[in-house]
Every structure is written in structure tokens, then in C-alpha cells.
């Protein structure tokens, strides 16, 4: 007999309607109950019994992007207005579909995702955090250590499958979610955006915060920047083609060139969010039948 799993998410960042939403206390809950194979997920209590996996994620994001306004308030205000106007423009094309951000670790999926969620009135979720919660382990690094990468990937797929039936979410996916074809089947229920960031910029960002939370960067020797750069280069080589399956590509180098900057570090997260919306619109205009990608046909 198949086990029954319910995915229940609650978010303090709730800003708009989602299928099956329910209000509960101060937070908003939405849940789905449908048959999936729970494998090794927490909550299992025997193969023939109904089991429920609870995922409670509290995410917070501000409608007024904190990255704005600190250096150049005038420019920030213009950017914020442009962002909102782009969001209003793109919303009909999205038609409540979820947005999945894909990209290497450190590419800004969380940073840009929270901005997009705020401006679209969507809720934001981080799939790594949902996996941590479903497994009942406090960090991805710990899951890799106590179980294995394969165990993490299996649970990541289950989380993405559960999310695939929902609406009005922005999801920051794990950096490696793109490697499993089945995950694309789930993510293509919504719209996928690849944040394409030069490796040097990724390595700089990661070196600044350390690699402790990123198990795939453990084990290299050298200074933090070089360690991150070397490992990221290998991963990028392995995954380049997989990221390119995304419906929309947001190249930071391209935005920097358009804005006349020599370095992508000059770009604000808001300007990246604006370009993301622009690319979503371009994609939707060119190919409104989102689910007909060549990847899915294969
Ligand atoms: N446009 C940007 N400019 C400078 N720093 C940024 C930018 N976007 C994100 N960062 C910084 O880079 C780091 C990684 O960002 P973020 O957590 O958003 O990436 P991510 O893709 O969600 O990472 P992961 O996949 O590892 O969870 C953070 O320290 C964040 O502040
Ligand atoms: O790039 C990757 O493979 C990963 C990125 C993180 O988001 C986590 O999903 C995990 O550390 C693996």
C-alpha cells in the first residue's frame, strides 16, 4: 500500500493566495495530501501506514528590499518603481505559476527570490530548508555527513515533487537540483530561471561567508577564494548544460554590460530581479506552451 504524505508549508512571508491555503493562528498554511513514496523521510512509521511529513518554513523578506537604498537612495527608488512596474507587467504571463530559481551555490537565488516574491505577492521558499525540515536535520551539511549526498538528492526530489502542484511560490532550489532529470519535470510545472553568475564572483561571495554550510566545497586545500573557485569550476563544467534547461537565463555579465559596469559586483539584487522578470516575459511571449520543452519530450 502506498503511504500518504502531506506537504504542509507555513510562511510568515505570506503575501498572496495559493491553492489550498488555510489560515492558522498568525501564519498561513497551505497543504496538499496526495500519495507519494516517502522513502526514508522522517515520519515513517511502517510501510503500510499513512504517514505525514510536515514542513514548516518561516521565511521573512521585506517588500522594501534591504539591499536598496543604502548607497544611492535616488537610484534605489527608481529601481524599486521599475521593479514593481515590471512585476505588474509580467504577472499576467505568469498566471499564478511558480518560479523556480536555479543556479550555482551563491548565485543569489535566495536574495533575488525574496525580492521577486515580495514584488509579485508570492511566497518564498528555499528547497534546501524544506529538505532539512522533512528529514529533521538542521543543516544540509549535516544531512550529507549523517546520510549521504544521494539521500539528500532523493529528499530534494520529493520536496520538488510536492511543490510542483502548488501555485504562487518563488522557490530557491539547491545548486545541484538541476542534475536529476525528474526534478525538471517537477520544476517545469512552473517557470525556471537560471541565475548565471561568473565563477569569480561566486567564489568571492562564498569566500566572504565561508564554506561550512556547503558540503560540496569541503575538502579542498588553499585559501577560501581559491578553494571555492576550484571546486565551483568543476561543478560548473559538470552542470553547465543542466542549468541551460531553464526557461529563462539571467546573465549577470550581460546585465553589467548593458549598464556599463566592468564588474558584476556593481549590480544590485533589484536590478537582477528586474532582468529576471524581463526574461520571464520574453520567454512567455516566445513560448507560451511552457511545458513543451525539448527536455521533457526526451
Ligand atoms: N547581487 C549580489 N551582489 C553581491 N552579493 C550578493 C548578491 N546576491 C547575493 N549576494 C550574496 O551572496 C551570498 C549568496 O547569496 P544567496 O544566499 O542569495 O545565494 P543562493 O544562490 O541562495 O546560495 P545557496 O544555493 O548556496 O543557498 C550571500 O552572502 C548574499 O548576500
Ligand atoms: O550545488 C550543490 O550541489 C548544492 C548546493 C546547495 O544549495 C545544497 O543543495 C547542497 O549543498 C548541494
TrEMBL record:
GO terms for biological process: amino acid biosynthetic process; aromatic amino acid family biosynthetic process; shikimate metabolic process. CDD domains: SK. Transmembrane segments: none annotated. It is found in: Plastid, Chloroplast. InterPro entries: P-loop_NTPase, Shikimate/glucono_kinase, Shikimate_kinase/TSH1, Shikimate_kinase_CS. It catalyses: shikimate + ATP = 3-phosphoshikimate + ADP + H(+). SUPFAM superfamilies: P-loop containing nucleoside triphosphate hydrolases. Its EC number is 2.7.1.71. Pathway: Metabolic intermediate biosynthesis; chorismate biosynthesis; chorismate from D-erythrose 4-phosphate and phosphoenolpyruvate: step 5/7. Gene3D superfamilies: P-loop containing nucleotide triphosphate hydrolases (3.40.50.300). Keywords: Amino-acid biosynthesis, Aromatic amino acid biosynthesis, ATP-binding, Chloroplast, Kinase, Magnesium, Metal-binding, Nucleotide-binding, Plastid, Transferase, Transit peptide. PROSITE patterns: SHIKIMATE_KINASE. Its cofactor is Mg(2+). One of its GO terms (molecular function) is metal ion binding. The keyword GTP-binding does not apply. GO terms for cellular component: chloroplast; cytosol. The keyword Calcium does not apply. It holds the Pfam family SKI. Catalyzes the specific phosphorylation of the 3-hydroxyl group of shikimic acid using ATP as a cosubstrate. Belongs to the shikimate kinase family. This is shikimate kinase. It comes from Iris pallida (Sweet iris).
